[in-house]
Structure formats: C-alpha cells, structure tokens
Amino acid sequence: MSRSVRGSIVLITGAAAGMGRRYAERAVAERAAAVVLWDRDALGLSRTADELRSVAAEGTAVHPYTVDVGELGAIAKTAQRVRREVGSPDILINNAGIVRGNGYFWETDNGDDTRTTMLVNALAPMYIAREFLPGMIERAYRPARIVNIASAAGTLGNPRMAVYAASKAAVIGWSDSLRLELEQADHTNVKVTTVTASYISTGMFAGARGPLLAPVLAPEPVVDRVWHAMLGGEPLVELPGSVRASRILRALLPTRVFDRLIGDGFGVYRSMQAFTGR
C-alpha cells in the first residue's frame, strides 16, 4: 500500500470518540475517498461526523452509521447498507471495544457483562471482517488492510479484568490465524495487523495505573504507530516494548516466578485496583 490511505474507503468501528475518532481524523487528513464511521452512540457519532466533514478536503466523504456491534444481526444489515451506499471498504479498523466492571469474575453481573463483552470485543470483529473480506479478496489488484485492536491484556491474565482479557485473547488468536490463512491462500493483497497495546489515556481505562515499564500511553503516538504498521502490512504491533518483553518472559519463566516478577514486582496484577472507567 502507498504511504497514505488517499483514495481508499476506510471503515472504523467505535468511531464516535476515543481512539476510533482519532483513526477517523487520520483517514480524513490523508484524503481517503470515504470514511465510514460505526458506533452505537448516535449523538456522539453525528457530532464527530459533522466535525470531520468541516475539515475534510473535497473528494473525502464521511458516512456515519449508528450500529451496536454487540447485536450480531445488525452487523450484516449495516454492512449491506455500506456496500450499497458507499462501496466495499479497502481498510477495516476493528476498534470498537468495551470493558465492564472492576471486580473479580464471580462478582460480575450474572453473566450479562460476560456475554456483552465477548460479543462486542471478540465476536463482532469476526462477523464484521467476514462481511467485508470477500470484497477485499475479489479486488486482488487493490491493496486491502484489516486492523484488529486487541490488547496487551490478551497476552497475560490480570485480576479484575478476566472477561476482558479473555475477549482480547480471542481476538489475538483469530486475527493471527486469519493473517496466516490469507497468506496460505495467496490472497496477498489483504494484510492483517494485530494490535496489543497497554492502557491508553482515552478515558476507557480511567483509574487504571500503568505498571512499571508500561506507563499509560498517549493516544497520538499509538495512532501514528498503528497507522504506519497498517500501511506497511506489519503483522503485529506491541506497545510499549515491555509488552513483548513480558510475553517472552512468560514463555521462559515458571508460572509462579513470572507472577512474582511481573505481577507483583512490576505491579501488573495491581493495575486495575482503582479502575473506574468512563
């Protein structure tokens, strides 16, 4: 892919605010042909779309769609509208995600939080990609990209976020398998990038404390790193570098030693104790 998304159709989920909005701003700034925004927050989505249109260059269209990706049936219906009204996306950024509660697993809301988290974080990216992948594959002459926003939480367990960690671990396993399947089937125009970042200061993880060597990240550098990785077709983005180091140490050390070093010594297992969220 070229050095920008100019002329491409870019679809971003969770685009009304936070990181999703920032990815949308980047797409508009680079003069994408169309920037398709998905979010369940109708008011926030409308406001974001209006603000993006006010700065968009001629030739860049902004298309907001109110959709709750936790309702899997709504994904297919909205995808049909997008294909009919805008066209098949060249770039899909599966950014939408939620985190519920700050207690232990058995304190969650009778399984409802578990179900909703898994639907939005794990199943929705799969369903959305399945809707748009055939179009990407058919246009073999045109580069296509899928970016799946997972989390460093998906690479190791962490108290008070068991279901969130499970949902992101599912995304990591699926996303990397999808990448390999596309390569094996010789659909080389479609590249998949998996993102495993630590806490980002967007408000989603308000109250969470960055562990030693993994401070809470500013959004702008994360957007920049993910964007360049997406354009270059890089398979994995780990932020900060300590996320990769932690993954390596987990493979090398006995579990209890790893728990004491990373969990207790570096403070990872205490990072959600003061979590409040948005």
Short key terms for the protein model shown above:
7-stranded parallel sheet, single chain, globular, alpha/beta, 278 residues, Rossmann fold, SDR family NAD(P)-dependent oxidoreductase, oxidoreductase
Tell me about this structure.
This protein has eight helices and seven strands. With 278 residues, it is of the alpha/beta class. A seven-stranded parallel beta sheet has the order 3-2-1-4-5-6-7, sandwiched between helices. Helix 1 (18-29) packs across helix 6 (219-232), helix 3 (72-85) runs parallel beside helix 4 (112-138) and helix 4 (112-138) packs parallel to helix 5 (162-184). The relative contact order is 0.12. It has a single domain (9-270), classed as Rossmann fold (3-Layer(aba) Sandwich).
CATH class: Alpha Beta
Order of helices and strands: EHEHEHEHEHEHEHH
Major sheet attributes: 7 strands, parallel
Helix content: 40-55%
Strand content: 5-15%
Q: Helix segment count?
A: 8
Radius of gyration (Å): 18 Å
The number of E-state strands comes to 7
CATH fold node name: Rossmann fold
Broad shape: globular
- Low-confidence residue ranges: none
Structural class by helix and strand composition = alpha/beta
Looking at how many chains there are and whether they match, the oligomeric state comes to single chain
Distance between the termini: 36 Å
CATH architecture: 3-Layer(aba) Sandwich
Mean pLDDT: 93
Give the CATH H-level superfamily. NAD(P)-binding Rossmann-like Domain
Task: Tell me the count of domains.
Answer: 1
**Spatial strand arrangement across the major sheet:** 3-2-1-4-5-6-7
